[in-house]
Amino acid sequence: MKCIFTICSNNYLAQASILGKSLQQFEPGVAFFIFLCDEKNSQIDYAALPANEVVPVEDIEPELHNLVLKYNIIELNTCLKPTAIEYLFTQRKATNVLYLDPDIKLYAPLTELYSEFQNFSILLTPHIYTPVPIDDKKPSENTFLVYGLYNLGFIGLKNDSEANRLVAWWKEQTYKRGYFATAIGQFVDQLPINHVPVFFKGVKVLEDRGLNMAPWNLHERSLKQVNGSYYLNNGDKLIFFHFSSFMVDKNELPLMHYDRYKLEDRPDLKTIYAEYNEELKAAGYFFYRQFTSSYSAMKEEHDWQQKPLLKRLFKRRK
What we know:
Helix content: 25-40%
CATH superfamily: Spore Coat Polysaccharide Biosynthesis Protein SpsA, Chain A
Low-confidence stretches: none
Strand order of the largest sheet: 3-2-1-4-7-6-10
């Protein structure tokens, strides 16, 4: 069985819905799982989401409570990727698994990825393929030395001994030191993957630039529309776009993180960004964004309980 999955909390279900609908269009025979890094909410109709199943992470991780108290919600979501893959391999007998971030949308079938599994066990996409100008803009090449050479908005794994060895190693990394702590060389699940082509066999660093186009690689990629499909400047067909840090109704690129271009500088992106903006709203973006993760609330309460002096000071002020 082929499986594709994403992980998100309730507030990101609009993004996951768009991903799911694009999978239904281009990969209708593949099972799509949403692993919910949150408690289910009675206001949400999970059965209506475009997924084969919505699986709460508490159903697959018996030690979840300890992780909730250890990590913030971003760290927790990323920490659980290896666990979800392990579950799909062992409990669902998946032959291969693709992970996609919820803010990704498909624009073409994933045929190329599945063909790579004939010869490779592990599939990765680098953030960039070409040098970045040295101009004090973001991102620079050093950005990827800090946050990781490979973008973990995507990873592909075949259910074999080498991929399972990677999953076990990766899970230890994310469970023990999956922090957002770049000053000491840690960045959630992503930075350890720098070692994968050295530590493991059967690794394919994919070369198709139609995979994982995103705000951080715009210096080397532009788009054009031909007969309803998107193509890159080098002729590759756009397979999936990663709308990282997308700002609804702002009509702008995420300049806080990637300020090399404004949207006005990139007319090739205006249509695809406008389309995604409307799709997000139609998918219930403003409805889902109101929900604060129950796990965030648990951690905040725990952290507060660990600071009795601050609690006493706060009570005195009141």
